[in-house]
UniProtKB/TrEMBL annotation:
Organism: Elsinoe ampelina
Lineage: Eukaryota, Fungi, Dikarya, Ascomycota, Pezizomycotina
Pfam families the UniProt entry points to: F-box
F-box domain: residues covered: 16-51
InterPro entries on file: F-box-like_dom_sf, F-box_dom
This protein's name: F-box domain-containing protein
Length: 243
């Protein structure tokens, strides 16, 4: 008696390239849970650069920045899976901003700071009004915003308090921010509260908040007793304008 030939479905599910293509269309949370299906699924999802990027475990630096003389360009992705982690029900959101500069030097410095590799150059305050600005000295930027309860929200017995929980390795957005500043109303801390050159992950943020040192002072706790943080996402470069 001959063994029956494998079905088409079996061949697809055991071919890594085809399985990766299929899994890439799943919503991120469903993709994360699919690791439990079988050892094959788990191995593929944890080793595939594409799937790791979709799960916010691996940074994607391919976003291109735009000047204000054109449209803003594609919107970064915020990690909606993290709303299951944050007890206040908040999750990372994205804000579009237009930065304008008084001269070419500060304009070019900002482009360098927002591009990879990063440079330790302070961005001008976007809320500050500057007169005599040339229209072409402006950039569209995307800022990730997130809030955390100042009293902490992790408990040793909770699932999110588990030391090796997967959410700790997740980036807040794609592409990620590499630094976050505490904010309160119209005031932003001069020193960043979190700095991670490879991209800020949720675990980095929680660890810094639990320490509560340095920039994490009582003056930046809002009336709702939360920390509010923001940080600009990094671009792989800027689209050069055509003359």
């Amino acid at each position: 008696m001959t063994n029956p030939s494998p079905s088409a479905a079996h061949l697809v599910l055991t071919t890594p390239e085809l399985l990766e293509l299929i899994l890439s269309h799943l919503p991120p949370l469903q993709l994360l849970l699919t690791q439990r299906v079988s050892p094959l699924f788990h191995t593929l999802i944890t080793t595939s650069p594409l799937l790791q990027t979709l799960l916010f475990f691996r940074p994607n630096w391919s976003l291109i920045g735009h000047h204000t003389t054109s449209k803003p360009g594609p919107r970064p992705l915020n990690n909606l899976m993290l709303r299951r982690v944050l007890s206040s029900g908040t999750y990372p959101t994205m804000t579009l901003r237009s930065l304008t500069f008084p001269d070419t030097d500060t304009f070019l410095a900002a482009k360098t700071h927002l591009s990879l590799p990063s440079c330790p150059i302070t961005l001008p305050d976007p809320a500050r009004e500057v007169t005599g600005i040339q229209r072409d000295l402006g950039l569209w930027t995307w800022t990730v915003n997130i809030s955390l309860p100042s009293a902490g929200f992790l408990t040793p017995t909770s699932a999110i308090g588990y030391e090796h929980a997967s959410w700790r390795r997740m980036l807040l957005c794609q592409p990620p921010a590499t630094e976050l500043h505490l904010c309160k109303r119209w005031r932003r801390a001069e020193r960043p509260a979190v700095v991670v050159e490879g991209g800020v992950r949720m675990g980095d943020l929680v660890e810094r908040a639990e320490r509560g040192k340095g920039p994490w002072n009582e003056g930046f706790i809002s009336s709702d007793r939360d920390w509010h943080l923001e940080g600009a996402v990094r671009f792989s470069g800027f689209l050069e304008e055509r003359g």
